[in-house]
Structures are given as structure tokens and as C-alpha cells.
Amino acid sequence: MAVMAGSSPDEELKKLEKIVADKDQELEVQQRVIQLLLEHKNRELEHQQRVLEHKDRELEQLRSSLTASAPQQGIDSLPRSLPTQIDDQGIN
């Protein structure tokens, strides 16, 4: 930083101290903004984890109800009379 003509060393020191104080305050504001964003993202993540846990429970309940209502014979027990699927080129 260039020293202004006619400024005393004390005046220059005060200007530099003011610049440093302003930068410190700016940094504190930026840190607070980052902290708030991080807290918000953490809350979003916790919410998504709860949603996922709920969906997992729903899926497990569905699996349980399907296995309880269907015999455990596997895919070989499916009827063989289902039509064969053919893709758009006529190939099985």
C-alpha cells in the first residue's frame, strides 16, 4: 500500500488498523454465513435421512406382506402361460 504524501506514520497506522478491522469483521460475517448454510444443509440431510428410513420401513412392510401372502416357491412357480415379451424389432 502506498503511503500518502503528507500523512504521518500514526495516521497511516490508523488507516491500516481500520483496514484490518474491516477485513476481520468481513471475515466474521462470511464465517457466520457459511455456518448458517452448513446448519441448514445438515437439517436438510437429517430430513432426507428420516424420509429414507421411512421409505425403507415401508419397503420392508411391503416385502413382508408379499412374502406372507405368497408361497415361497420362487420364480419357477410363476405360470408358464404368460405371453413372451417381444421387443420393437420382433426379437424375444
Q: Stretches where pLDDT falls below 50 for ≥5 residues?
A: none
- Helices and strands, in N-to-C order? H
Would you tell me the overall average pLDDT?
86
Strand content: under 5%
Q: Could you give the distance between the termini?
A: 78 Å
**Secondary-structure class:** mainly alpha
The global form is elongated
Q: With helices defined by DSSP (H or I, 4 residues minimum), what is the helix count? A: 1
- The radius of gyration is 34 Å
Characterize the biggest β-sheet. none
Topology, number of strands = 0
Determine the fraction of residues in helical runs and give it as a percent range. 55-70%
Region (Disordered): 62-92
Biased composition (Polar residues): 62-75, 82-92
Structure description:
- The structure is a single chain.
- The chain has 92 residues and is mainly α.
- The chain has a domain at 28-63.
- It has one helix and no strands.
- It has one helix at residues 9-69.
- The chain is elongated and about 100 Å long.
Question: What's the layout of helices and strands?
Answer:
Layout: H1 9-69
Biased composition (Polar residues): 62-75, 82-92
Region (Disordered): 62-92
Quick structural gist:
This protein has 92 residues and is an all-alpha fold.
Comma- or semicolon-separated keywords:
92 residues; mainly alpha; 1 helix
